[in-house]
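Re: the request from the purification team.
They wanted to know what the chain is likely to look like in 3D before they choose a buffer screen. I agreed to run a prediction and write the result into the notebook, where they can find it.
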Amino acid sequence: MTQLPDSSLSRLFDPRGIAIVGASATPGKIGAMPVTLLRQHGYEGRIVPVNPRADAIQGLPAVPGLDALDGDVDLAILAVPAAQAAQALERARPGGIGAAVVFTSGFSETGPAGAAQQERLCAVARERGIRLLGPNCLGFMNVRRKVYATFSPAPANGIVPPGGIGMVSQSGAFGAYAYSMARERGLGLSHWISTGNEADIDVADCIEWLAHDADTRVIMTYMEGCRDGARLRRALAAARAAGKPVVVTKIGRTQAGAQAAASHTAALAGDDAVYDALFRQYGALRARTIEEFFNLGYALDTWKRPPAGRRLGIFTISGGVGALMADEAQDAGLALPEPAGAAQARLLERVPFASARNPVDVTGQAVSEPGLLLATADDILADGRYDALAVFLAAAGSSEALWPTFEAFARDMQARHPGVPLAISALFPPARRRELERLGCLVFPDPSAAIRTIGAVAGLADEAGSASCADMPAPAGNAPLLPTYNEVQAMELLRQAGLPATPCTLAVDEDAAVRAAAALGGAVAMKVVSPDIVHKSDVGGVKLNIVGEEALRAAYAGIMGSVRRHCPEAQIDGVLVAPMAPKGVECIAGVHCDPVFGPVVMFGLGGVFVEVLKDVSFRLAPFGRDVALEMIREIKGHALLQGARGAPPCDIGALADALAALSRFAHARRADFSSVEINPLLALPEGQGALALDAVVLRADAAA
């Protein structure tokens, strides 16, 4: 069923009438700015100034309080001191006002007293069915409907045109800067929203509402943090389902879990890694710089659909810049397939000194021969081997004499090859640049920025794994909770959850070890089981390839003696006996319970690869096989799993199934366990599956 937009937020962001509490006629006061902007820019709804000390403000009749409103007002703007905000809202009739924007600071951001004041404001709003934006925010703008519910000076210095970008920011200062940058870049906005303290409406609510908004095609978001992970996941899923790309700048890179040295997963799954996993999983593009933030928003808004794949064609009039662009393409993960041989031959016949490979250097001949650029591009794109085309024209873009050639090229390319989006790098005058953008062409003065942007937006086509779990099997049934789990119990728990776990037995004496080995048959591995010993090999707690009763008894005695010498205070449960593992590639899989987003699954190569190289990937649980395959392909060590240096390829499908099963277990039992780690998770040769050889499970109440 298609989820409908929140009607309460529609009353907020598209109000029929607006009351400004604390309205003023004095320039510079925050209560004066929204009245001025609404009137100046032609808001067509009703504007009601609220001020008990004035009969009229800026030529509009005023009322003394919200209780004096006579209908047709959806939104109240509160521009009064924090101490008066709740009192002002108390005068609203229940159901009479749909939403309020609270500009004022002095709430939870100031400490306990401010937090109590904010809670009182929220309680009053809840009693009257009023949604709150803020407090301590710059408000919002609905550009197409000319709603300027803000006291930011940014629109007073020039407004942005209506367009398809919805912009939401947790920071008012960054939001005002972003609005000004959008104006300078010529980007059109549908909405501009700042969320402030997020006492009620948060950034996720705004993303979800914009996902359903007919005027919005692209969502640009600035985030500092998130208190409700489920709500943000739902919002990103809604945007993805609506086909609306989300560009995110997320600040704050901490390693909140780094102190948990006993768990690789917790140590590596810092806040930033979890957010990265979230954005990847839901197809949101993360911008690391402000320039990238705007380049991505610009590209996604100008290109109505991003490239369907990562095959790029580069055309240039400069061989040197073509090489630079090729280097950038490689760094961005773009492929540069060569044109068909016949197309190369036709170009060289026409321009013998050209370079017909990719990059295609048509040289300065393209400037003196107007039809060359289009004819060559048309020929090379004819067989469908490119997903996007980047063209470098240097300073030729500033020539008015050549403008008709370039305009015709962009227009004809759009008509003949609509599935191959075009980016041109050249020094065009602003008016010419805007004309090309209206034709659906990206324009960059910097060719490197053009290639990096293409690489980022082309990545949207790679995010094929569904973040939905609707088609997943039901989670494994709950096994009974134990006070603590040793390795044997942990392996049994995972086996019940559907993971492939090696059979193992806990032996409490030499006789039990002999019986366990006899039941397994063949060579066995033995290792101490103790909740107090993390690195068992360091204390002589591991013996491998043990065969025969005499060797088993000697190994058991050797392990116990060595461990007691090195760790005399350690609790020892016994010795684990398991069959020797077959040959394969050692991997690691783990679960860390993030306080905001819940269980996060990690995957990487085992041993020093995870500890030193930190070559791991993360996804939020639960997920299916496709997302698990994405995780596996994402690590740099993926080549080792494919079969490097003559080794057989691993059973990557079985590995993905194990990760998906782990994610379902983690989600189903998220209240019970703080972390799970399987190390190693052995990837066997193709067709032979995967095998968990060791596991550590920590109960939620035992995490400390």
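For the purification team: The first strand starts at residue 17 and ends at 21.
Please add any questions underneath this entry.
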